[in-house]
Amino acid sequence: MPDPASYRPATGSIPEAPGVYRFSDVHGRVIYVGKAKSLRQRLNSYFADLSGLHPRTRQMVTTAAHVQWTVVGTEVEALQLEYNWIKEFDPRFNVRYRDDKTYPVLAVTVGEEFPRLHVYRGPRRKGVRYFGPYAHAWAIRETLDLLLRVFPARTCSAGVFKRHGQIGRPCLLGYIDKCSAPCVGRVDAQQHRDIVDDFCDFLAGRTDHLVRQMERRMAEVSEGLEFERAARLRDDIGALKRAMEKQAVVLGDGTDADVVAFADDELEAAVQVFHVRGGRVRGQRGWVIDKVEPTDTPQLVERFLTQFYGEQAALAAETPGGGSDDAQQPVPREILVPELPADVDALTDWLTGLRGSRVGIRVPQRGDKRALAETVARNAAEAFTQHKLRRAGDLTARSAALQEIQDGLGLDSAPLRIECIDVSHVQGTDVVASLVVFEDGLAKKSDYRRFEVKDAAELGDVASIAEVVRRRFRRYLAETAPAGPRDADAGNDPGTPREASDVGARPGIDPETGRPRRFAYPPNLLVVDGAAPQAQAAADVLADLGVTDVAVCGLAKRLEEVWVPGEPDPVILSRTSEGLYLLQRVRDEAHRFAIAYHRQKRSKGMTSSELDGVPGLGPARRGALLRHFGSVRKLKAADVEEIAALPGFGPRTAAAVLAALHKEGA
Prior knowledge:
Elements: E1 19-25, E2 30-36, H1 39-46, H2 55-63, E3 64-71, H3 75-89, E4 105-108, E5 117-120, E6 129-131, H4 137-148, H5 158-167, H6 172-175, H7 189-203, H8 207-223, H9 227-245, E7 257-264, E8 268-277, E9 280-290, H10 297-318, E10 334-336, H11 344-355, E11 360-362, H12 367-409, E12 417-426, E13 429-439, E14 442-443, E15 449-452, H13 456-479, E16 525-529, H14 532-545, E17 551-555, E18 562-563, H15 578-608, H16 619-629, H17 632-637, H18 640-644, H19 651-665
Parallel strand pairs: 7-10, 10-11, 12-16, 16-17
Antiparallel strand pairs: 1-2, 1-3, 4-5, 4-6, 7-8, 8-9, 12-13, 13-14, 13-15, 17-18
Helix pairs in contact: 3-10, 3-11, 8-9, 10-11, 12-15, 13-14
């Protein structure tokens, strides 16, 4: 554990100017980013007596091994740089207000040729518009079912859409007029997009306009004695009004605002946001975050607004039509908060730049807005209470698991980072391996890696494990090898942001991006799927490479025994042990990840094996053929002209493809 005094900057070397700073660990990974009006005052506070620091601050400064800073000219620049660094480095001690995965949302895949409407849980993606989140998935499905009779857009998956297009018949929703059936050409791409645009307009708040438009159409067809069409429009209007009734009017003046509230204690804070558009509550979101340092409500407000709306603006910029009008803006006209942050003017200017028009941040004092803010605050308090009840059991279990593993394997410290390797194959073919990572007892999927094992039929399982361990830790040694020094004057040009004089190019850091390389962060414990031979093979590889600070164990499936290299007998952990349960989860996750990769490779081999060896036909062209015709059977039924008409194909290649297919089937 590094001593903060070992990397404390020299007295007087820290400027008193405003700026942004970042702490990084011994491997060069950035673990915390912050900003300050006075860098000297803020950074000196981290190097005070450890016993007087906030618990999470103490953990952060003892994990860090370096500190750097950049001087900026204005507070708005500091806000932007802090947000950019948090987004780029994803520091483990920083709060990240990512969209939560608890609440379901209604997603519209506007980036596709035929957009799809569906219920979704998970992180936000490019090319998708989201409405909600809602409290329950059934609420979305009920609303969607009502609206499909008015806006008959596609709701099926890509596989179902493609299959019905191939067979030439729509699904049940197409027959009951709850889908316009673009899969069979009832509407073209533009007509279907117009339907989806009307649907998005309705959910974005332009409800009155659509209802009035439909009422006018109903009157027109009634005058033309088209009573069946008029009755259908009447029912559609009723469906729209029933959907509107599900969203209560809370602000009668048609306000567009986000209402934010917090509930917190010394270590954690809960935040709740109600999204009000057109006076109606359109969605609700909530997070619970850890505090890294003593943080009051104004500071919580500033950090939340910076990170949340910065992320929303970035997503809107990547989504077609994501911010084309006021109803779709990622930043609302007004943000109601419990207390104003100290840098409210700079924050307002920054948010105004994201929106493109003036944004107001204020504390509601009276009336409906004050009452709504109190409702949001009650929701935050309730969410915080429920989190405390769940978190107490979760943290206790994870801490106990890591402690039991440390005690059972005789480790010097708790294995805060665990990596596990598993090999998957079918009788020695398509051999692949997976590497999964758990930090603090939780999966860190961004660090997962996949390996393709060459000549594995001759190697066998034990040798395959050794091969993967060797490749992983060779990369680790290569990426953490000492690099040459950087220019000591870099970043200190007058009139430009200056960085601290941590001028040596640190091992494991990519000099171009400033981020850790893919394999530069070693585990405390390496787990392999297997018994004593697999564990010993992994340990031998580490010894050959000179890696001495990584513990190794194997977990055998049959009796769930933990094997330590060099020991004749396994370590037996209790069947009710939290440590054994964690090792099982790590092993099972590695197995799942390896199986998924193996199935992917095997599937590719099975679908294209008949086309292997065709002159001039590589993987890209094979994939294009299968995507266009849908199957090898349909490809066999095609003629030379059909194949030659595809981009990148000619008569000679088309003839070679058909010759290979018919020869294969002969």
